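User: Here's a chain of 147 residues. Predict its fold as tokens.
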Amino acid sequence: MAKAIISEDEIQVVDHVPDWAAAVKMASVPLIRAKVITNEYVDHMIQSVKENGPYMVLTDYFALMHARPGEGVNKPGMSLLVTKQSVDLAGKPVKIFLIMAAVDNTSHLKSLQKVMSVFMDDHSYQTILAGNRRQIITLLKKSEVAK
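Assistant: Prediction complete.
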């Protein structure tokens, strides 16, 4: 079977977080533990929002968190944090924090396309937004098998 785009270990669901920066840090923990990214990459993501505003919030409740490719990234990867209570990210409410780590400008695009196809399906998106970790894991595994 193909490797999941986001593995079970990289998926977290919590009731709430104190603020968006704490959410980014929490969402990044699985990637830091796996040595996919460093704390430098987390700092770059947070600084990017502070400098550029909420451009990473792509749709209601969904933020695709990232920084420049390569800076603090050891290998490509993604992790997911879903908060049951929304948190304000520079004026936008967010419940889903998808962390994307890229080593260059192109190698991550296929994985990003796969994961975004899941998020763009309304039923799948609602399942993720509901915050049931087991259902999210099942959904992401099914989507990988279907590719």
